[in-house]
Amino acid sequence: MTGFGIDNLPYGIFSTPGTHPRTGVRIGDAVLDVAALTGDDVHATGSLNAFMARGPAAWAQLRADLTGRLSDAAHRATVEEYLHRLDDVTLHLPFEVADYVDFYSSRHHAENVGRIFRPDGDALTPNWTHLPIGYHGRAGTVRVSGTPVVRPSGQRKAPQDAAPTFGPSIRLDIEAEVGFVVGTPSELGTAVPQAAFAEHVFGVCLVNDWSARDLQAWEYVPLGPFLGKSFLTSVSPWVVPLAALEAARVAPPAREHELQGYLQDGEPWGLDLDLEVRLNGEVVSRPPFDQMYWTPAQQLAHLTVNGASLRTGDLYASGTVSGPGRDQRGSLLELSWNGTQPLTLADGSTRAFLEDGDVVTISATAPGAGGGRISLGEVTGQVLPAR
Question: Per the database record, which ranges form the Fumarylacetoacetase N-terminal domain (predicted)?
Fold first, then answer.
């Protein structure tokens, strides 16, 4: 089973030799040419943005239409005419990224980071259980899975160094995350409540927010992440529609105290997703998304509560996904405990942080409507030497 059955139907942008990029839907190990099948020019733009901007009614209508065509034998000949083998297509960035926001919503991750860097203090900052912490990232360096990860250079300063030095990062890391893609925009000055989450968010993708921990450590006080994060953020080529994740919805963890009204839990928008992180083909972690303290609906509500508007193509990510076990940590910072406990791989080599040539792949599955599991695909990247 591929995890890409009729209960999934994720959207992407693909091309074949000599043709322009266009919308496709993955079914099994094939890609269905939605532009050719429907004749709707909105699917021939080379981006999902124009279709996403049409809103939830259009999303539901197309999903129903595709489900009907794929499940009715009467349409088999027509459908097969527009199917392409996955191996024969090139996959592109599925949407034009308008803005990018990265959150920090895993309590296990936040506590691990706090224990690493503040061993004698509180693991969490005082605001962490009151609001979803986030920062604005760089939309222009969000790229599709498979884009090479050129090792970034910048300033870094180890505690024992008298002065900062400049050079390639020596603490290059991953962050296993889940991303949420906005389809329907909102008006400036108007907050989007949690109840409107599904009216604005089109679907879900996987994210690896590559991080240069040494650059980040030197630059981030007092304003937060900058060059240590902005060099590349990788996203999976398939956007799974929210409608495919109904069976994955779960209640979030218990709250430590009463939240502000706009953040109080309404509909359950925790998601039961099982992530898997592979380093050079070897599984090194299986982070569970169902334990994320802040849900994507709360993140969207917080992102807009000050009146900030949404745009079609906005991407916001969950932050690193980590669970309570060592084999559930979503970053090498945690897996190697800041380099003090390096991982030993099957070939006998060790890793504290990424080396040139390393390939990292993040994948995920979720419960499907039919009782099986659907796939969110994967996001992958290989580290290349600094230029």
Answer: 8-94
CB burial of residue 360 (10 Å; 0-12, 13-18, 19+): buried
What type of residue sits at position 76? R
Residue 236 has pLDDT above 80, yes or no: yes
pTM, to two decimals: 0.97
Distance CA 121, CA 119 (A): 6
Residue 266: the pLDDT is 86
Q: Distance between alpha carbon 152 and the CA centroid of its chain, in Å?
A: 21
pLDDT tens digits along 281-333: 999 999 999 999 999 999 999 999 999 999 999 999 999 999 999 999 999 99
What is the domain extent for residue 205?
100-384
Beta carbons within 8 Å of 341's beta carbon, 6+ residues apart:
none
Cα atoms in the 13 Å half-sphere on the side-chain side of 287? 30
Give the CATH number, domain containing residue 33: 2.30.30.230
Would you state the structure tokens that stand for residue 339, as one six-digit string? Answer: 């380099």
Catalytic: which of 43, 92, 108, 109?
A: 109
How many of the other CB atoms lie within 10 Å of CB of 137?
22
Asked whether the predicted pLDDT for residue 211 surpasses 90, the reply is: yes
Q: Which of 46, 73, 92 is the last residue of a domain?
A: 92
Q: What is the pLDDT of residues 30-74, one digit of tens each?
A: 999 999 999 999 999 999 999 999 999 999 999 999 999 999 998
Cβ atoms of 132 and 304 closer than 8 Å: no
Could you confirm whether 302 is annotated as catalytic? no
Torsion angle in degrees (nearest 10) through CA of 196, 202, 208, 213: -30
Write the single-letter amino acid at 153.
Answer: S
In a domain, 2, yes or no: no
In angstroms, the CA 13 to CA 22 distance is: 5
* Cβ neighbours around 247 below 10 Å, total: 17
One domain, residues 80 and 106: no
